[in-house]
Amino acid sequence: MKNAINKVLLLACGAVLSTAGAHAEYRQVNLTVFGMDCAPCAHAIHVSMKGIQGVNTVDVDLNTGLVTIKLVPGNNAAMRQFNQAVEKNGFTHKDATVVVRGTVTGTAAAPVFEVAGTGDRFALRPAGNAVDMAGLLGKPVTVTGVLPQAARGKVPDTLRYSAITEAP
Amino acid sequence: MRLLMVLVPAVACAIGLPATAWAADHGPVFGYATPVNSERELSLDTGIFGRYGSGGTEFATGSGFGYGLTPHLTVNVFVPAMFGNGSLAESRMIAGGEWNAGASWRFLHSVTSVGKRIESTASLGVVVPGPQRDSGILGTLHREPGVAGTIATGMASRSQYVWAGAGYTRFAEGSHDRRPSTFSWSGVYGYRPPKLRRGYDQWDYRGFAEFTGEHTGTVTAKGVDLPGSSITTLWLGPSVLAIFKDVAISGGMQAPILRHSSDVLYGREQIRFAVNFSYLKYSSHTSSH
Hints:
The structure holds 2 protein chains of 2 kinds.
Chain A: H1 2-21, E1 25-34, H2 39-50, E2 55-61, E3 66-71, H3 79-87, E4 92-106, E5 111-115, E6 120-126, E7 140-147, E8 158-166
Parallel strand pairs in A: 6-8
Antiparallel strand pairs in A: 1-3, 1-4, 2-3, 4-5, 4-7, 5-6, 7-8
Chain B: H1 2-14, E1 42-53, E2 56-70, E3 73-84, E4 98-113, E5 116-129, E6 146-156, E7 160-171, E8 182-191, E9 204-216, E10 220-221, E11 224-225, E12 231-244, E13 247-260, E14 269-281
Antiparallel strand pairs in B: 1-2, 1-14, 2-3, 3-4, 4-5, 5-6, 6-7, 7-8, 8-9, 9-12, 10-11, 12-13, 13-14
């Protein structure tokens, strides 16, 4: 009985450590927002973004329309929430540059990037030089890339990556 | 008919139906503009509005509450209090003693680039007599509710603002009295100098030139249209808006540039001014995924 309990505890610890190591999450989102003309517009975006669980800091540049969001490790924030925060204030979101950790699935020819826990799933396309995906399939990776503008209420289905590195 | 005219505004208030586009937290203090609240944003406006002329002085203070049901639909109410004894003409461009409730719908919203958008907003509201009576000729009339509609269109950007708008208010007749219907219009130009196009954690200032006009129709008293009670005026003046995050302060004054009426009933109105304070409570609510 004692052995059985120890085995369960060991398995549980292993599962926790494995999950912590492979946690899929957005690390940073740089979102271009159109239509903000004044300080309250930026403040509204700031308040809305800060309301998303896992958001650490938000910076809004009114003159460039760039909203820079940094997130805490272990968050489960999804791209749809960032877009909603823009839409609810009456503005339009354009392309977003993201640094995100997840897993490469699919095939080497048609790789898919999954951010587990958020429900986000993107087809990976190279923005420049293509990376050989065969060695990355099933592995946790950190991707830097651009999510193109999507229609209101939608999340794009393609992530154009500029860099992919195997996550520790 | 009279019962209907009482019930309609009451029901409208209850369901948060309509209101006039009245001095808002993001825009000019006199003219019509297009901004509406964000979704779930609660705004509180409170201000003092004054009119001075040979017919006396009239002040109104009041508070307005707005709530964004969606990013483009805001419901609002305005509850004023008046003091002073001016015998002045009916005005819809500057707050009087009527309670307002209504909704503003931004039906056109075109976001063209960073910091710039083109939009149009329509508002519809009910105007209900408050507990205080007007002074002068309007104070002698039996008061009934009215309906007010406005429409505004324009462009907002980091450097410039341009808005044009118009409104119409019509009151019901009661006991053979009717307050005058009012047609109003406005044009606003705003400018933010390059040095003031700063970050959102600093005070945001902009200046406006506000042009407004009103045509107030004939007063009907005891079933008779009062001669000389119709008046047309054009007004022009500057205003300034200062905003820091969730608070805004605006103020402005206007002088008449054209006046078409006899002075018998209302005297000669010489100046209008308004000071408005706004608090904007933005919602941090976001849906979970």
